[in-house]
Design goal:
Length: about 375
């Protein structure tokens, strides 16, 4: 069983058939003389397993999703004066993280608690969380002149919550694969979390629990479901869907709290009746799922110029926050008020998209591999491949 890749890594397809052999191997095969009379033919060596191909569709999904994440973060400081931008922000926030989390669950289906996979989980998720949680805390302390800013590994800062959430979700994967009705159970847990103000901020458990159904759904999704989503009929149906969602978001923009989209607080903490948490959990799950399907339907399935960048989305995700927060700490959005105008919003969006694209480049990934994918063989015992 091959090891489940991280959501930020390139997604493998099932092993491909051998399309061709090296030229010298073909020549030897074609020109080898028959065995001499009375002798037996040599036993051919078993062919080496073919390298796993990468599925460009999932790399495309990850790249486009990370661009939406960066653009939405860039809108936050400048959208207050624009109802249309707030509506767009609500649409993007409705599905961009659910899409990411669903894909995370999809590629966690083969996770178990064997030593190699636990090692991979630690080096590709836990270690980046420790490194970047510390880095973001120090960045705020010195760039924002906040000497009291503490380094708290149990209170994720800004975007690092996703790493600790992914760690918890993946560790619990065997549980969701063992129970009979995992999705209803996950939805029930999310609903209970939304009405439980005493959960607190440790490990951002509100988000971990309220986003849990999307991860569990990803565990249940099969490859044929993605083929179904990418049909032409689904793409056409998604157009009026997004148009209607945009109209509704424009109406709701001045009326609806953004906290419902962040899923970081209970209903009571947002000043809403306790029962509204359960209702909104189900409503937001349904809306996010529909918009996620619409988004996935339009992702190209073939290789594009940005496909290779899908392997570097962890760098884009973890680095773009420094750009956004750096601009905030420097007072850039307060000084240049024109950034809230339509032209300014376009500029902000383009800068964020270009910046996160560059951050996903393979060169950046190689330079940061020590923090995002360290080998750390010194920290783990050697185990046999069969374990």
């Amino acid at each position: 069983m091959f090891q489940a890749p991280s959501v930020f890594q390139r997604a493998p397809l099932p092993p491909a058939t051998r399309e061709s052999e090296p030229r010298h191997a073909q020549t030897l095969t074609a020109t080898a003389p028959p065995p001499a009379p009375g002798t037996s033919a040599p036993v051919a060596a078993a062919p080496a397993p073919a390298a796993k191909k990468r599925d460009p569709y999932f790399d495309n999904v990850k790249y486009l999703a990370i661009v939406l994440v960066a653009v939405a973060h860039a809108w936050e400081p400048v959208m207050d004066g624009s109802r249309a931008t707030r509506a767009l922000y609500m649409i993007v926030y409705m599905f961009h993280m659910p899409a990411f989390i669903l894909i995370s669950g999809y590629f966690s289906r083969s996770f178990d608690m064997t030593a190699p996979k636990v090692k991979r989980l630690i080096t590709s998720v836990a270690v980046p969380y420790l490194v970047f949680e510390t880095a973001y805390s120090l960045f705020k302390r010195y760039a924002d002149d906040s000497p009291d800013m503490a380094i708290s590994l149990v209170d994720p800062f800004f975007l690092t919550w996703f790493l600790i959430a992914l760690f918890i979700w993946r560790v619990t994967t065997p549980i969701w694969q063992a129970i009979r009705h995992p999705l209803p159970v996950a939805l029930a847990i999310a609903m209970l979390a939304s009405v439980s103000p005493d959960i607190g901020d440790d490990l951002d458990l509100q988000r971990v629990l309220q986003f849990l159904p999307f991860f569990v759904l990803g565990l249940l999704v099969k490859p044929e479901h993605f083929q179904l989503v990418r049909r032409r009929e689904v793409r056409l149906l998604s157009l009026p869907l997004f148009a209607g969602a945009l109209l509704f978001a424009y109406w709701a923009a001045p009326r609806m709290q953004l906290g419902w989209f962040y899923r970081a607080n209970s209903a009571q903490e947002m000043g809403a009746p306790w029962w509204s948490g359960a209702v909104m959990t189900l409503a937001m799950f349904g809306c996010a799922l529909v918009l996620t399907v619409g988004f996935l339907a339009w992702v190209p399935g073939r290789e594009r110029w940005f496909t290779v960048l899908g392997a570097g989305t962890i760098c884009g995700y973890l680095l773009h926050g420094f750009l956004i927060k750096g601009a905030e700490y420097a007072g850039l959005f307060d000084h240049y008020t024109w950034l809230s105008d339509p032209v300014g919003l376009v500029v902000v969006s383009l800068v964020a998209a270009v910046a996160v694209t560059l951050m996903c480049a393979p060169l950046v990934g190689r330079a940061l591999k020590w923090a995002t994918e360290p080998e750390m063989n010194w920290a783990f015992r050697k185990v046999s491949a069969r374990r």
